[in-house]
Amino acid sequence: MNSETHLSDPLSRIRQDVQGMHAYAVQDSAGMLKLDAMENSHRLPSALRAELGRRLGEVAINRYPGARVEELKLALAQYAALPSDWSLMLGNGSDELISLLAMAFVRPGSAQDPEVILAPVPGFVMYGMSAQFQGLAFHGVPLTDAFELDESAMLEAIAEHRPAVLYLAYPNNPTGTLWNPGVIDRLIDAQGAQGGLVVMDEAYQPFAARSWMESVQKEPDRHKHVLIMRTLSKFGLAGVRLGYLMGPAAIVHQLDKLRPPYNVSVLNAECALFALEHQEVFAEQAVDIRAERERLVSALNALPGVHAYPSEANMLLVRLPDAAKTFQGMKARKVLVKNVSTMHALLANCLRLTVGTQSENKQMLAALQASL
Prior knowledge:
The chain contains 15 helices and 13 strands. The protein is an alpha/beta fold.
């Protein structure tokens, strides 16, 4: 390509590392039982759907988001038992919040010595992707074979890389693990000693036995550099795209400067407010999903050659003799799950299954058994 052609080709102006990336893959789920994305399979009861429709019909969509968004922040603060000296900011899902966190640590002229984002792996891929998008360095520390935190390796990585942000998913995706709180305490202390942030990602909090917010309330002084991130996606509003980040007010104030002014629509805000007004319905759904999760673990572990790992989320990581063959067999039977076997060496021959309703789980088990 000569220089004149190069200058006239807009693709040539796009960063080369971006052109070499793979986009976040979303599987085609048309006509399938969709159990690949950890959504809450329960829909709202019909009466509540009708009531929500009426509410949304009254929203002034000709106006930019305003007071209702502030009301949503107050409702979420109450729902999450936000400490009095903490603040809360909203994101268009957790993905936007992760991107804004990365953006906050990009220093002009730092391409040769970028800040580091650190997280255990395998974990949520957006931690690494957002770092790459912003020109930061990402360092992943492998979990143990039992999918627990490798404490010594994590402490060494914190000391060596001095990360700007340490992500700890609680529970973790895709393993469903709720890690040892004593280990997390020591990682928080180590990260605080070198001036970095810790982000406790609680995307799956509705299905877990505990929340890190309990530790924050018990030991506030230990958590002056800790943020807690949640989403309403797993709560039951995946289509609404609403995440929220909580932390000490001074830190959240700085991060909130990076947020686009109208990143949460009036319709999204109204849906979220409606859901919080009826949070007991979603709590009952979470109870059902947790019960289904335990039934699925027993049923899966009864199958020859199948091992389902314990989970505190609405998903199960399952190791099989041949994950690729089983995945394709289930897909042929119109059941869509996630093949994570190539994401990391620790996930060899593993599938990730969303815990659905009782009837969905029955259909998924039948498809899996027939595909082994």
